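Quick note —
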Amino acid sequence: MFDWLTSELGGRGRPASAGSASAGSAGRRLHALGAAWLAVAMFLAGPSLPAAAQSCGTDYTIKEGDSLAKIATAAYGKASQWTVIFYANQDRLGANSSLLVPGLSIRIPCVGGTTPALPATATLEATTEGESPAAKPVVTAPLTRRIEFLTADDYAPFTGRQLPNGGMATDVITSAMTALKAATGDSFDFSVSWVNDWSAHLNPLLVTRAFDMGYPWYKPDCEHFGDLDKDAKYRCQKFFFSDPLFEEPVLFFVRAGSDFTYESDAEIPGKSLCRPAGNWTFDLDQNGRNWVKDHRVVLMQPQTWDDCFRLLEEGSVEMVAGNELTGRASVIRLGLTGKVKIIERPLAILTLHVIVPKTHPNARTLLYYVNDALKRLKEAGDYDKIVEKHLTLFWESQAEVERAPEPTGETAVEGETKAAAGTDAAAATEASGSN
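Predicted structure written out below.
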């Protein structure tokens, strides 16, 4: 299953990752795909011996030889739910996700019908001496007392007006900004608007300052600007990016009967892929792939993720390339359980951000507000609670389709469930900042 690991990492020497100071100087860089493959290799690879039983609702200390897949198997009975732990520990793994460091404590949330065998441990709290940064007052600049955020539906579980609190990303943003508003003595405010045309967000809606900031958007590898496609170059040239909201593995979805394994990138040229219009494509060209740039694949770009999975079902495309949770949501919503499987080898691991146009006169100040608010949310332990809440809701809604054992090397989406409510029609409606 993991032959690709040795072929991709062999001969590279010391792997690059975005580690902390304790990880050494080489651990402070995240070189897009190399570290992405390493991250999932560390998560999924490991000794074949079964891991010791692990109770959910507790913290778990990483041991030598552990992988997220092993821990997920012990906690949930399914290795495929390693992403539950991945998303629930963004604050602890974060940019250091390529290294499961022995001794690191991670959270094991209870999801998909599992129940804790032991009382849940307290969430991570700020440990700084004296007054917590989250409690310190904030003084806002006179010209930047309000932020108009822009997002859209069709990106479960991260955004969607039909989702609790607008989805996980919206909940993080609104919670962080509400806390910031309180810290300013209500001298600051914000709002979230929804425009269901992602392709119009960057240009014209953000660059013309119809809105101040947008979320959630992937950040290309701007350090290797010359290797990027036109869309990625535009993002790097025109926008500043906040600190990461989340990291996401990008995976391939194929029809259940497909013999596609994705052992290496050499399998991709000649394939037909689908990703909705307005979404990123730079991962399809990075690291010398040039699948789109050199027309080595057929890229279909309908309006929504649901449209992509309809094309997959009817055989018009061979695969959908997207993040696991959004893809699963579409599969369930369309009643395609049992007809789609997920290839576990990642295409990339990318970070989601809030963005602001560089031409915005207060861009740096707005970015500071957002980053400071996110920092406060994490230091207060509320970020952890929000992520865990939304992951729990997501996986519990799909618990009935996660019963059967899965073939090695792939995740079969199977079972039965009710179709979820469809997204709202394209519109621009504003939600209160106190949402």
